[in-house]
Write a structure and sequence with these properties.
Length: about 500
């Protein structure tokens, strides 16, 4: 007969072995775990997430911006081997939907908990700090510009929005995980990242991985973002989507920006010539054609579509890099990043769609660009996409052809019914041409009639200007395409433009 002590010891050992065995068999937390969550979520009815209440929700824009994390409280701040630190945004202001954030280390996910004393509330206007703080998002910092200073390289905050910058850049255009029913004449659906997982970087590795769970009334998804900071900060994106319902317009790799005024804008009472985060949509089609479309701030909602098959890339670019074009020393518009999307595999038939929204203020993001598949998204479907998003400032590296550097317009003095557009090209082979070379223009348009075209060199700028004089057909939109060539060789990208009466 066992003695009570020996029996208790054996029982304790058995329990310890059983517990240890169960822990050993517990699967590691991986991206597949998030995909399983998204699958399950898609099979359930959508539930609107709760909002924070109280003083944090009443904060103004300026007061929310004044709320900062205290020094030395960033995640991994005490780890000398970590090239990345993470700071958190509290839920409040318009960012009222809390998100759950966890850290993944050695296959184990641990929730992040934040104490109110990790934030400085002194400039927020609050009489007393909140007793609890919910999280709305986070920003990642890295020694991007100086070896000992950690600069912000990417931030996730609000719905499925995130912003990335490269070396020497300032935040401008934003990316989104997913957009639904954008610009089709009915309320847009804004999918939301509900949970984030921050994968602890290995020592000596200069890339940072973020996983996210997306939820929306019509879709769920699992996202992986692998971030590599540098002169070009690159975000390798892997998205797995699950459709709750049929979706009329599923917008992939959506980009959002601000365009208030530019070279072709009407005169304004403002000392700043141009105001924009991006000045054009650039595309490289599946066939290799390079297309540039200048942006506008239209008087009415404008939607443009560019059909393609297996696009090589598209993006909202900030080509104008001269401070003199902006004269805004506070906004640094000349240093805003261009956002460039490159699919890692064939996306099939579809279109790049550009939505331009009228705006009376430069505080509004009124430009959206994204990819739409030719094939509709149906309930129960699983869709998978991979692409590389780059925040860059070397736009010329995207093409060896001459590029459009300015689009201007106005009336024709001797013909009141006619309009004139001046398109300036530079770079590529144009740099080596003498002014005597017989450049020719290839111009086509719909919605009007071409009256005259001519090309002139600008030797002092090492550029060439194409003038197109046309007569609109009543109130129709005039769609134009043009390029410059020498004999049988096309030397420039394809410039496209929509003139609206």
């Amino acid at each position: 007969m066992l003695q009570p002590f020996r029996f208790s010891l054996i029982l304790a050992l058995l329990l310890f072995q059983a517990t240890g065995s169960a822990r050993a068999q517990e699967p590691p937390f991986t991206f597949a775990s998030i995909e399983a969550m998204a699958t399950k979520l898609a099979s359930e009815p959508y539930k609107e997430p709760p909002s924070v209440e109280g003083d944090m929700r009443q904060l103004s824009y300026d007061h929310f911006r004044a709320l900062r994390a205290r020094p030395n409280t960033a995640l991994w701040h005490d780890d000398d081997k970590s090239a990345f630190h993470v700071e958190f945004f509290p839920a409040g202001f318009i960012y009222e939907k809390p998100v759950q954030i966890s850290v993944v280390d050695a296959g184990k996910a641990t929730p992040v908990t934040i104490a109110p004393d990790q934030f400085d509330f002194s400039d927020t206007g609050l009489k007393t700090p909140p007793k609890e703080v919910a999280l709305a998002g986070f920003r990642v910092t890295y020694p991007l510009n100086q070896p000992t200073k950690f600069d912000e390289i990417i931030a996730f905050l609000g719905a499925s929005y995130f912003r990335a910058i490269g070396r020497g850049q300032f935040y401008g255009a934003s990316a989104r995980g997913l957009a639904i029913d954008t610009g089709i004449g009915r309320p847009e659906e804004f999918p939301t990242f509900r949970q984030f997982w921050l994968v602890k970087p290995a020592d000596g590795i200069n890339e940072f991985t973020v996983w996210a769970l997306l939820d929306a009334p019509d879709a769920t998804g699992a996202f992986s973002f692998v971030i590599r900071p540098g002169a070009r900060t690159v975000v390798n994106t892997h998205a797995v989507l699950f459709m709750r319902n049929d979706v009329e317009l599923l917008a992939l790799a959506p980009l959002t920006s601000m365009y208030f005024a530019g070279k072709a804008s009407p005169p304004r009472d403002d000392y700043r010539p141009e105001i924009h985060d991006s000045d054009g949509l650039f595309m490289i089609t599946g066939a290799g054609e390079r297309i540039w479309r200048p942006l506008s701030n239209p008087q009415a909602l404008a939607v443009s579509s560019f059909s393609d098959s297996n696009p090589k890339g598209f993006g909202l670019l900030q080509r104008e890099r001269d401070f003199a074009a902006y004269q805004d020393s506070a906004a640094n518009l000349q240093a805003r990043p261009s956002l460039w999307v490159e699919p890692n595999e064939g996306w099939g038939d579809g279109e790049v769609r550009l939505v331009e929204i009228p705006s009376q203020s430069e505080t509004n993001d009124n430009i959206v660009a994204f990819w739409v598949s030719r094939w509709p998204a149906r309930k129960g479907e699983r869709k998978e996409f991979n692409y590389r998003l780059s925040a860059l400032g070397d736009e010329a590296a995207l093409s060896t052809q001459a590029r459009t550097i300015a689009t201007r317009g106005g009336t024709v003095p001797y013909a009141s019914k006619q309009r004139r557009v001046a398109v300036e090209f530079a770079g590529g082979d144009l740099d080596s041409l003498s002014p005597e070379q017989p450049l020719s223009a290839h111009v086509s348009l719909t919605g009007g009639k071409v009256m005259r075209t001519y090309v002139e060199p600008l030797p002092s700028r090492k550029s060439w200007r194409l003038f197109i004089e046309f007569e609109p057909d009543g109130k129709k939109v005039v769609d134009m395409r043009a390029s410059l060539g020498l004999r049988d060789q096309v030397l420039t990208e394809t410039w496209t433009y929509a003139w609206r009466p």
